[in-house]
Amino acid sequence: MSRVQCPRCLRPKTHCLCPLIPRLDSRTRILLLQHPSEVNHALNTARLAALGLNNAELIVGEVFDDLPKLLNCPGYQARLLFPAEDAQPLQAYSSAPDEQPLLLVVPDGTWRKARKLLHLNPLLAALPRVTLAAGAVSRYRLRKAPGPGALSTVEAIVQALQTLEAPTSFEPLLKPFEALIDGQIEAMGEEVFQRNHGEGKA
What we know:
The protein is of the alpha/beta class. The protein is built from seven helices and six strands, in the order βαβαβββααβααα. A six-stranded parallel β-sheet has the order 2-1-5-3-6-4. The radius of gyration is 17 Å and the shape is globular. 29% of the residues are buried.
């Protein structure tokens, strides 16, 4: 028998995260393009980010037919948050009154699935790319990061916004994410967690 699910955060009602999800304003607009395989993932952090930001939109799919319309957002300049040799590191907005904020397009999925989204949507792949500062450490303690700087989607968005809109803090966006991880550790038991994921574990 399946557990009753919260229709908003998609967590079981007994573990609903909605009370922890903030409603934050941002100058930057966030467009999350989520691969369908991520929708029912236990840590659907893209959904947490979209729920916590007033100026964010989450769209699920593989081919986005309305991408031209989504990217044509008056008052914003579209950038893809994805690594590339020519990607520009994100920098704080200047104080120039005519500077356009970013429409930050964030693919959500494994690296392989995210690359597939770019392959299937040439308009997406053609966007100028931006990257985060190197050296960030993920708080996702349940999985060994595939490499340095590998962050969950919500962590990447928080770091991007903290950089662009400094000194504004977007840390409250991470509260439901951390509660989710704590809940999973609690469910598996501390002993199992330490054995599989504890400090010093490869």
